[in-house]
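We emphasize that the prediction below concerns an isolated chain of 653 residues; any contacts that depend on oligomerization or on bound cofactors are therefore not represented. The input was used exactly as deposited, without trimming of termini.
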Amino acid sequence: MPVFGSRKKKSDEYYCKIFTLDAELQFTIEATAKGNTIFSLVCQTLGLREHWYFGLKYIDKVSNEWNWLHLNRTVLSQPIQISPNSILLKTPDTPNSTDLYKPHLLRSPPISPSTSTLSLPSSISSAALQSIKGTIELYLVVKFYPEDITHELIQDVTRRLFYLQVKQDILNMDIYCPPETAAHLASLSLQAKFGDYDQAILSSDSRSFENEALLPLSCFQKVELSRSDWFERIIALWRTHASLTREEAETSYLKYAQDLDMFGLVFFEISKIQGGHKTSPHQQHQQQQHTMSDQPLLAAELWLGIDSLGIRFYKKNKLRPEVFFSWSDIRSVTAHDKKVILNLTTDKNATFAFYTAKSSISKEILDLSMGNHELYMRRRQEQSIEIQQMRYFEEQQQKEKMRIIARERELRFQAEKRRDEIAREFLDYQQQMKEIHDTLPKYQEAAELLARKAHLSGEEARLQAAKALEIESQLERCRYEMNRNEEEKRLYARQINECEQVISTLVNDSVKNRKEADELKLEVAKWRVAEAAAREKLLAITQLNQSLAFTNAAAHAQVRTTALSPPPYQPTGSVQESNERAQVMDKQSKQAQLALQLQDLKNVIQSKKIEERQTLLDKAYEESLAIGDNKYSTIQKARSGTALKRMAMLQDL
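Result of the prediction step, given as a token string:
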């Protein structure tokens, strides 16, 4: 006889928003969903395979603090704030500050979802909305850092998320960054987002980079430079990064950022005595608001810093560790309520116990220690097949990208060379036009003078012709009188001879004047022809300049079009080598220019800094800089001596 069971009740659904550093993911999940399910769904959506660096954070509804989501537990079993489903009808606010600095309200997670959204269909029916019990907000952030961030990261999406996380931590002042380094990193962030400066100012959003958050607030508080001065300095540095792609700019950003002393570190306040961190509610609120301030908290005896290399202990400031234990020196870390015990590998009795303010902090220290130690050991083992496949796939993609980038740079170099040639030709044509413009008034003035002279010669010829006609009429009268009187005839004959001589002279003069007038007319005609030729040449040069400008614009458009799908092209060896040499020389020149600009900026900052606003971290950084110390030398000093000796030093602290 068959047994009929009861029908399984459908689980409640919740609307889950996961905020990454540059996007928002939206899913519907069941009430029984575990953290692993959501985390796997986020990684699959982003195409993130290096998931071991990341984790999900949420706001604790009891303590109103940030906690890591436990992936092996259900989401609703953890104290996560659940908003009513009316939040689905709201749109996230977007910051609209136009300053170089935009303050972030939260420590590690982003302040608000950005405009990019990956989600289910946004239109939710009323029936589906009724079945959704509420909205859960989670944040995908970096949890563990590699030892060498520029070489260990494999995927582009991983590097992109690390870049955004580190950039935000620097802007939030979670990582101490000197002003000159902050300006350099700001210029790299502009190059990564907008590309070359000359191309950015020509684009439709040419001024949108002015609204970017570029510098931490401390740069404006501690250095007497206006925002416009800072912006001009950053723009000058931005120009030196020309031709860097987005990937190269982000990689350079991470390369310089990982040399900062607080990079990749998570700090905790610890005490040798239990209850040493008890403070008043007002002090707790003040410490929560200024947790990442570079001024030490009065209640703290020590700071514990955890990163990919090991555990560090700080006494005076967060730049110089007093004692450092690598993960190879540490055998185990255990946590019991607020107590944490550190055991070394050298001796079972070599232990150090300390206390935290809350048991949740002890658990977080244990969690970070276990995760970092696991990654530390994994790096020193042979790479798995998955890692090898990922590296091979990314290397092939990088080779293809570099081939396309090299082709784009070659086309750009040729286009710039052609542009320079066109510019030189344009200058030559402009010089010729200037000479023609200078000569044309002289031609016009000479033509006007010749025309006036020809007019005067014509008037003289006309007067002489009229005078000749008058003399001829007199001659006719004389001949008439000669027939009447023979005596008068001889007289008139003499007069006739004289008149004929005068007439001959006048006729010769008239012919001569006519000839001169004809020559002047021919000369005027020649000048008119020269003037017309000059005008035609000027018109031709003007049309040629317009065609050259059109050709230059078409060449730029062709370069942009060719960048998307470059045609097959194989340059000759000599041309390719010369182009490579030119690129190397250009890179060296830009590096030298960048070094000079950074040194000049550093000198300006030294002269403009406000001494009374310099914090302990600023003074510690200046002291380390004066004696030639850096992040790695201070770690080496803190690790000097045997593990037992360092444990004794730690006990003394």
